[in-house]
Amino acid sequence: MTQHAPAGPSTGDAAQPAPPGPRPRRVRPAKLGTTVVEQLVDDIVRGALRPGSALPSEGDLCEEFGVSRTVIRESVKVVQEKGLVRIEHGRGTQVTDPRQWNLLDDVVLTSVITHDENATFLDELVSVRMALEVDMAAAAARLHTAQDDERIAAELGVMRANLGSAPDFGAADVRFHDMIMAASRNRLGRAIVNSIHDKARTSMRYHGDYNEPVMRQTLDEHQAISDAIAAGDPDAAAAAMRRHILDSWSRRRPGR
What we know:
Blueprint: H1 32-45, H2 58-65, H3 69-81, E1 85-88, E2 92-95, H4 106-114, H5 120-143, H6 146-161, H7 166-184, H8 187-200, H9 204-207, H10 212-230, H11 234-252
Antiparallel strand pairs: 1-2
Helix pairs in contact: 1-3, 1-4, 2-3, 4-8, 5-7, 5-8, 5-10, 5-11, 6-7, 6-10, 7-8, 10-11
């Protein structure tokens, strides 16, 4: 299948585009700074403001958003902290290369997922998630306690009891994985996976549709993971987790 380059983030060395025309006036929001930050991040991620180009002037942004210069300055500083712009004295504020963006930042991650037209970023996200969860499944098999086994089995039971309710099944699915990560005692890995997974799950293109055949297959895959952990078999737990994440993504990936 031919893959087309996304219209959003670009890391190429293409010539700089012509300066953009006047930008439309935004509707004045309730939370001024938060909305300005989110809109600027979204404009950069979707390519309306290209890498290497200058951010509109303070005056133009004040007019566009209907806010004061103080709000604009503080908002631009926040965007700079996220890695999307660089403030240079004498040169204004420049949009940075996507390789400098903080992709674990909530606002940036949400926007990148939203504009990931060809699911290439979601592929990367799944790859990172798989590497961490496979390792944590193996660790859980080595370190699990009886209480860990009970918590994992309980979420598996909730999934089994909710084959007729996709929302409840999905919520238990997330908790099942979280209980395994908790059993691994890897706090950082758990925090990273939960952060990226929570943002990705807001996208229909990531979580796809649940139906009964898919839920039953997911349940079987989870049972294999649970059995391997309870048996104290790290290799089997890692293999079962790897198969589950890869097979699950292949079933629901956009354009599969």
